[in-house]
Amino acid sequence: IFSDVPQAPPVAVFKLTADFREDSHPQKVNLGVGAYRTDDSQPWVLPVVKKVERLIVEDDSLNHEYLPILGLPEFRSASSKVALGDDSPAIKENRVGGVQALGGTGALRIGAEFLRRWYNGTNNTATPVYVSAPTWENHNAVFADAGFKDIRPYHYWDAAKRGLDLAGLLDDLEKAPEHSIFVLHACAHNPTGTDPTQEEWKKIAEIMKRRKLFVFFDSAYQGFASGSLEKDAWAIRFFVSEGFELFVAQSFSKNFGLYNERVGNLTVVAQDNENLTRILSQMEKIVRTTWSNPPSQGARIVSKTLNSDIIGNVKTMADRVLLMRDQLKSKLQALGTPGTWDHITQQIGMFSFTGLNPKQVEYMIKEKHVYLMASGRINMCGLTTKNIDYVAQSIHEAVTK
Ligand code: PLP
């Protein structure tokens, strides 16, 4: 009965990791998947997470009963506070709610499903959804699978100047049909590592408000861009202070290093409490038929960890990335590799968009056993003091051969 099922293509980033694992070359390096690695190329369980996990195991008051459909209440409120700030007026006005989700992906998917059902009419699959060009590879598919038929790119990356195409972005905002949905990366844009400045965010917000465009923030790297949870939430908090009703899909995969626990939250900022209550009642219906109720371990860890405790560990990760950025740039400059490499230290967060073209990427993988995405994106956390000379030399060869 399934004889006509076609083979689906592999997910690029996971395929890259599988290829890397099979490679037996002693100097192989994986700069693909977006996960933190220590300077010994090992995954890192954050010390604060380990501490809280021990407390959870020892806590006899905890059990494995079902959580409420919308998730662990203290996790939901802690998450919204991380995004909007402890003293957020919107939270004080009781018009902010959270939906615990399976990772940032789950938060995006639940949010997309809700928007298709209830935004801009009911079941309106024609509302345009704009995602940045380029963007995280899953954005298109998540919205498409939620039923949206018109998914469009908005200008973001200017390849020639290796920076933000602000004029193109603002023009797209001006021209987008009213009520279009815009997916905005809250910080540490994946894959370009390039964020708007505060002044640029203000311009974006001004047009979005005037043109009645819906803001859907994707916040997967809070803390990773600057080492500060507050700074990295600046754009979100600014939009909320401007009176936007919006969604924030939050992932705790990267900043808590909880990749496989699937911890996420959809923060909903509504017009008022009565409106919020109705929105959450519909969210509950969506979750009930999707995963029914979420898992508890990651949510307990996040809600029991104070922001002040986590940020120390996040800073350790962010600082190591900064060091690798500095070193990679200096090494390429010392080698005299053609081109400018300033963008490596100008970009922020986990990734760098190197500017390597597909042919150069192929050379890196096939000849040098350095694995990176076809777009030229590298995960800076994959670099270590032990492999950085080899990677710099490989880039040099790829560019000059
Ligand atoms: N959004 C962006 C921009 C991402 O880069 C990622 C993960 O790579 C996610 C969302 C999804 O995060 P999660 O693993 O928590 O689903």
TrEMBL record:
Location of the Aminotransferase class I/classII large domain: 27-395
Domain of life: Eukaryota
PROSITE patterns registered for this protein in UniProt: AA_TRANSFER_CLASS_1
Cofactor or coenzyme needed: pyridoxal 5'-phosphate
Major enzyme class: transferase
Catalytic reactions of this protein: (2S)-2-aminobutanoate + 2-oxoglutarate = 2-oxobutanoate + L-glutamate; L-aspartate + 2-oxoglutarate = oxaloacetate + L-glutamate; L-cysteine + 2-oxoglutarate = 2-oxo-3-sulfanylpropanoate + L-glutamate; 3-sulfino-L-alanine + 2-oxoglutarate = 3-sulfinopyruvate + L-glutamate
Keyword field: Amino-acid biosynthesis, Aminotransferase, Cytoplasm, Pyridoxal phosphate, Transferase
EC numbers, comma separated: 2.6.1.1
Keyword check for Transmembrane helix: no
Gene Ontology terms: biological process: aspartate biosynthetic process
Localization (cell): Cytoplasm
Keyword Acetylation set for record: no
One MF annotation (Gene Ontology) recorded for this entry: 2-aminobutanoate transaminase activity
GO annotations of cellular component type: cytosol
InterPro entries for the chain: Aminotransferase_I/II_large, Asp_trans, NHTrfase_class1_PyrdxlP-BS, PyrdxlP-dep_Trfase, PyrdxlP-dep_Trfase_major, PyrdxlP-dep_Trfase_small
One Pfam assignment: Aminotran_1_2
SUPFAM superfamilies named in the record: PLP-dependent transferases
Note: In eukaryotes there are cytoplasmic, mitochondrial and chloroplastic isozymes.
Record-stated family: Belongs to the class-I pyridoxal-phosphate-dependent aminotransferase family.
Complex formation: Homodimer.
Protein name as annotated: Aspartate aminotransferase
Organism lineage: Eukaryota, Metazoa, Chordata, Craniata, Vertebrata
